[in-house]
Design the sequence.
C-alpha cells in the first residue's frame, strides 16, 4: 500500500501543495496575528476597545459562502494559491490569545528597553518575541494543523489538479472511494480491487499524518505553558 501511494504522482503533487500552503500560510498568519495582538495589547493605542469589537464581530458573523466566493472571484484569486493563503492570513481567536499573553508580560520590560534606547520595533522583535516563544509556538501549531487538514477552501476555489492539496486527494480516496487512476489498474478482480482500495485508504491516512506527528515533539515543551497562560488570563 505504501509503495503504491508513494509511486502515485497525484499524491506527491498534493503533498507538495499542502506543505507549501501550510508553511507559507502559517508564516503569514503568525506575522499578521502577532503584530495585531501586540498593537491592541498596548494601553496607549486609541480606540483599541472599538477595534477589538470589530474583530470579535467577525468571529460570530461572516459574509457566508456565496458572498465570499464572489469576493474571491472579483479579486481574481479563484484557481490561484492566493485563494488559500489570503483568506487564512488572520485568525481572530489566535489574536485574542496572543493579546492576552502580551498583556501579561511585565510592563517593566518595556520601560527597561526604553531606557536602553530601544524603539518599538526593536522592543518587539529583540525583547518581546524571545519572551513570547510559548504562545507563538502554540499559535503556529494550531494554525499548521488547521491549514494542513483543511480541504473545503481548496475544493471551492481550486479547479486545477496541480494546485490542489493532499487533502483533496485523500478525500477522493476516503469519501468517494475512488483511488487515483493507475493505483489499482493492474487488479482484475472486483474483490481484489475493493481490498486494495481499503489498503490504499489507510496508507494514505498515515502518509498525510506524518508532518503533524513530526511537529508535535518539537512544540511540546512550549505547548502546555502557552495554552495555560492564554486560558487563565482569558
Sequence:
Amino acid at each position: 500500500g505504501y509503495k503504491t501511494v508513494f509511486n502515485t504522482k497525484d499524491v506527491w503533487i498534493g503533498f507538495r501543495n499542502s506543505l507549501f500552503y501550510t508553511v507559507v500560510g502559517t508564516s503569514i498568519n503568525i506575522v499578521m496575528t502577532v503584530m495585531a495582538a501586540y498593537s491592541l495589547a498596548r494601553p496607549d493605542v486609541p480606540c483599541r476597545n472599538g477595534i477589538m469589537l470589530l474583530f470579535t464581530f467577525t468571529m460570530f458573523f461572516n459574509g457566508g459562502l456565496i458572498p465570499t466566493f464572489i469576493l474571491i472571484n472579483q479579486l481574481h484569486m479563484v484557481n490561484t494559491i492566493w485563494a488559500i493563503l489570503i483568506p487564512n492570513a488572520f485568525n481572530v481567536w489566535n489574536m485574542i490569545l496572543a493579546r492576552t499573553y502580551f498583556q501579561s508580560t511585565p510592563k517593566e520590560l518595556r520601560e527597561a528597553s526604553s531606557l536602553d534606547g530601544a524603539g518599538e520595533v526593536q522592543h518587539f522583535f529583540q525583547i518581546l518575541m524571545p519572551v513570547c516563544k510559548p504562545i507563538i509556538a502554540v499559535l503556529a501549531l494550531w494554525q499548521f494543523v488547521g491549514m494542513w487538514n483543511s480541504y473545503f477552501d481548496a475544493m471551492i476555489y481550486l479547479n486545477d489538479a496541480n494546485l490542489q492539496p493532499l487533502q483533496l486527494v485523500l478525500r477522493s480516496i476516503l469519501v468517494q472511494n475512488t483511488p487515483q487512476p493507475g493505483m489499482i489498474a493492474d487488479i482484475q478482480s472486483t474483490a481484489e480491487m475493493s481490498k486494495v482500495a481499503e489498503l490504499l485508504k489507510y496508507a494514505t491516512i498515515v502518509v498525510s499524518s506524518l508532518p503533524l506527528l513530526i511537529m508535535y515533539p518539537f512544540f511540546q515543551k512550549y505547548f502546555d505553558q502557552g495554552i495555560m497562560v492564554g486560558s487563565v488570563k482569558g
